[in-house]
Amino acid sequence: MLKVYNTLTRNFDEFKTRENGKVYMYVCGVTPYDYPHIGHGRAAVVYDVIHRYLEYKGYEVFHISNFTDIDDKIIKRSNELGVYYKDLAEKYAAIYLENIDALNVKRLWKYPRATEEIDKIIEIVKSLEDKGYAYEISDGVYYEVRKFKEYGKLSHRSVEELRKGARIEVNPEKKDPLDFALWKKAKPGEPAWDSPWGKGRPGWHIECSAMSLKYLGNGFDIHGGGEDLIFPHHENEIAQSEAYTGEKPFVRYWLHNGMVVVNKEKMSKSLKNFFTMSELLKRYDGEVIRLYLITISYHKPLNFDMESLEQARKNYEYFNESKIKLNELANADKPGTEIEGGKIAAWKKSFEEAMDSDFNTANVLALLFEIFKFSNANIVSLSSGSAKKINALLKDIFSVLGFAKIGEKRETINLSFKEDLLKVIKNLKKNPELAEKLSKISLSEDAPEILKEIIDIRFEFRKQKRFDISDLMRDELKKIGVVLEDSKEGTKYKLVMTDEGK
RNA sequence: GGCGCCGUCGCCAAGAGGUAAGGCAAGGGUCUGCAAAACCCUCAUCGUCGGUUCGAGUCCGACCGGUGCCUCCA
Fold first, then answer.
1. d(CA A354, CA A255)
2. Mean of the per-residue pLDDT values for chain A?
3. Does position A76 have pLDDT exceeding 90, yes or no?
4. d(Cα A438, Cα A195) in Å, to the nearest integer?
5. Of the candidates A443, A356, A368, A359, which has an alpha carbon nearest to the alpha carbon of residue A398?
6. Is the pLDDT reported for residue A426 higher than 90?
């Protein structure tokens, strides 16, 4: 039985959907005005894992995430750069999508944009005004918080407390400092849409109510986002939506992911302590970053540091290497010990129990270590059939965690790999004993063939016990990320990431 | 000031009343010409002080330290 931590009830609630077999989920997306950082990546990955597990459980998942493509920051930025606001927003929306593609986040059902849902937004604001929940003043239409009796139920605050903490008001016409803008009247030079209140644009919170209600309907299952959105964003969404529909709940389960922090401070643009996904992806494979992001419970803060990322890289390599061995065994058609069915079943059970406990990916990772420890320790005795059985389970686990490349051999690392190899050859030619042999290699061949010839030459030296030469060759290759592994069967190579790149 | 969260081995991190998962690092082995990889072994009583309980990282209280939200933010 799946249990999820619900911010509204502050409890691990049993997950029951509105409709049988279907999950409707809305996750607050980004305001695309700059490069997305790893915190945005974490949110995307977290809800992607949740999405994937729900599908594993047999649900059909209707998952959407918005782009808030009109707001103060976008207007300010586009004015600074002298570009059209929509072009700016679409540029960064595209970068965001590219980045999370690299993290192997599934594309969602829909990515609605605020500016493309103006009709629905106006309809809701108008309705709230008609029902007496909203009022118009000189600079816009505001939601009257005191009219909504349950205001504060999500963030667990009282209106009185909030009022004490409220900042000095900009517009004295507001009835209450807590009232927030549903619709902002246009200032000169700002993008604007026609409305019953003249030219203007949506306030910050209304677009999420409009898009979620439009595409998912009232009372949908999951609403997610960063925990910094609990107040005021999600609190206001509830107030708007439940007042508008006249029904509750607007959302059945409120899920919130923890922030990424750096040196214990929240990663944010204003503190300038952020790492963009684009820069991290230059140094680390997207799946390594993904693994790093799911090593800790999704609702806890994640303290970002390179050392932990490096640890994730090692763990990823271990999974990868172990899976390759298992695949080789599975394809070998080799007789051997059969794994007890009970073992597989127990692993499957602990996988599901972990995920059922509010998506405990950390425990799933521990399980993966257990499985691979077993397969590695028994790789010589196990039958191919057993390997296939283990692989079947791993396929499910990896598909839920969102790893598509574990077990693939990396054939070439990047485009400059051949250049690197030629550099190695050049360096090795400084050794007179090697020069002649290496010059026989045809440099017009592809990188894998060249590499193979180098390894063959080294093999000859090893046979003659010329370990000085073979060690020299091994060291040179290691510098470009080629690690040689000698065994009785011959020399295998694998490609690993180096500091300079993948 | 209000509402929260967190403090578990050098580091990362599960566990949430029944006697401390996992990973990285470290040390010792097996294997290897040496490595690498893999495997085996070793490695914590849970911020402090009280309380509840047969039994507490796990519940309650106080305190110490850190941090989030209350303003835009995944």
1. 17
2. 93
3. yes
4. 76
5. A368
6. yes
Torsions phi, psi of A420, nearest 5?
-60, -40
pLDDT in the model for residue A495: 81
Specify if A306 maps to a domain.
no
pLDDT for A501: 40
What is the total count of domains within chain A?
A: 3
Question: How far apart (Å, rounded) are the C-alpha atoms in residues A62 and A110?
Answer: 9
For the segment A24-49, the average pLDDT, to the nearest whole number, is 97
Between the CA atoms of A413, A414, A416 and A421, what dihedral angle is there, to the nearest 10 degrees? 10
Strand B, CB < 7 A, residues 233-262 of A: 233, 257-261
What ipTM is given for this predicted complex? 0.96
Whether A475 CB is under 7 Å from strand B = no
Same domain, A423 and A453: yes
> How long is the CA A7 to C1' B73 vector, in angstroms?
19
Grade residue A502 by pLDDT with cuts at 50, 70 and 90.
very low
Residues 81-140 of A with CB under 7 A from strand B: none
Q: What is the mean pLDDT of residues A258-284?
A: 90
- Contact between residue A457 and residue A449 where contact means Cβ atoms under 8 Å apart: no
Please give the Cα distance from A491 to A370 (Å, whole number). Answer: 28
Using the C1' atom of nucleotide B68, identify the protein residue whose alpha carbon is closest.
Answer: A228
Q: pLDDT at residue A323 above 70?
A: yes
**Contact predicate A421/A478, CB 8 Å:** no
Q: Are residues A388 and A422 in the same domain?
A: no
- Residues 330-369/A with CB within 7 Å of nucleic chain B are 357, 360, 362-363, 365-366, 369
Residue with tokens 């009247």: A185
Of A177, A251, A240, which Cα lies nearest the Cα of A207? A240
Spatial separation of the C-alpha atoms in residues A322 and A346, rounded to whole Å = 20
Same domain, A115 and A209: yes
Six-digit token string for A379: 């790789």
Do the domain assignments include residue A310?
Answer: no
CB atoms within 10 A of CB A25: 26
A162 touches strand B (CB under 7 A): yes
Is pLDDT of A270 > 90?
A: no
